Amino acid sequence: xxxxxxxxxxxxxFVEEKLSLRQFAETRFAALPMSLTAEQEAQLPLAVQHLxxxxxxxxxxxxxxxxxxxxxxxxxxxxxxxxxxxxxLAPVGYCTLNAEGQINQANLTMASLLGLMxxxxxxxxFSQFVxxxxxxxxxxxxxxxxxxxxxxxxxVRMARTGSQWFWVHLAALAVPGDDGITxxxxxxSDITERKQTEEQLxxxxxxxxxxxxxxxxxxxxxxIIEVNEAFTLITGYSRAEVLGRSPRMxxxxxxxxxxxxxxxxxxxxxxxxxxxxxxxxxxxxxxxEQLAITAVRGPDGEVQRxxxxxxxxxxxKLHQQRLERMAYFDLLTGLPNRVLLADRMQQxxxxxxxxxxxxxxxxxxxxxxxxxxxxxxxxxGDQMLxxxxxxxRDTLREGDTLARIGADEFAVILVGLxxxxxxLPLLERLMAAVAQPLVNGDQTLRxxxxxxVTFYPQAPSIEADQLLRQADxxxxxxxxxxxxxxxxxxxxxxxxxxGSPNT
Length: 503
Known about the structure:
single chain; about 500 residues; 6-stranded mixed sheet
């Protein structure tokens, strides 16, 4: 017989029932053999037979109960496994905080996020894992949770053991515990990668919007899908005015169809094109721009977008023009300088050879200019140079060139002359233009000119610099002849034909 159980160690009812049946059977059927045949069972008293059948039925019932218990245990084990999978191995961290902010429970994922063993988290303050810069954020978040009882969320940075901080999204809810004390159930998601992506997107958006260059994005068909603020400033069109339209709306009309076909062909072959072109502003003004177009391809290698980056280079072009003007033109008078004169002479000499007409090179030196500088100053001298250059330029024909090649020295190219005599009236007009007086305050300033002339073609053929030296030599002879006259250099006879407006 089993010993009676106390209240402190009570046995479950179904176990007590099984034990009592066993005790009942042992007391009443101790003398019976372990198994009975049908004939032996029939010889038993009716009461005993009834009890035997009852015990057999109860045995079957207990076997069914045992089977049910085994199935319940299996379901319970499965549930425990699912709980482990869903809670401890969840892709997010779970924890429960008490009213003081201490960790009461935590899953394995949270421990892994913090780089600690789960047992070491228990009873630790959750806030100690929040970085110092975000402590205030978590404090007010926790206070609001306790006060509102609502489900709330926030983003904070937490420190991982042995490494840098990482971003966490906290979703939490305050719930009353069995003891009436409010607890916080929290879900932690590592959003470091998302935050980094957001920062990259914000940086890209900031660069896009604040770039000094205009940016235009089109789809694969060439329709505009996005532009930045610089695009609007450069073109004059607002974002709403260009979305869905083709960049052809900006064309200036200065480029041929071949120009654009070559652009598209290079884009198709290399995915990139860069160059200068002219576009039209919304107000109709045409402006130069530097443009670079890049094809953006998807993972499959197919073009998905085209990105155009451009800038208005009007100021650059003007600067280049100023530099070119400084390189080829005299800053004071605006006339061509020696460099441009040499180029013009080469062109004029080629024209003379083709047309079989004469070219004259005239060297002009002002008489008495040094005295004006010395007596009246350089300002008056500059005014005289400007006035003389304008007056000489007005006497020339279309196609002729006047250049300043020294302080008070000029060179003239006269083209398309039928003979040497044809240029003599032009020489006299040049001398008369130089001799026109200049009114400077209450004074009238005057200068004259000494001219030297040579012609091309010559036999044997000579170079441009030799022509200029011949004209210079003839001008020097005009100076020696008394100034305010011209002298023609005769290359064949090495003789001079002197002339003067006074003769």
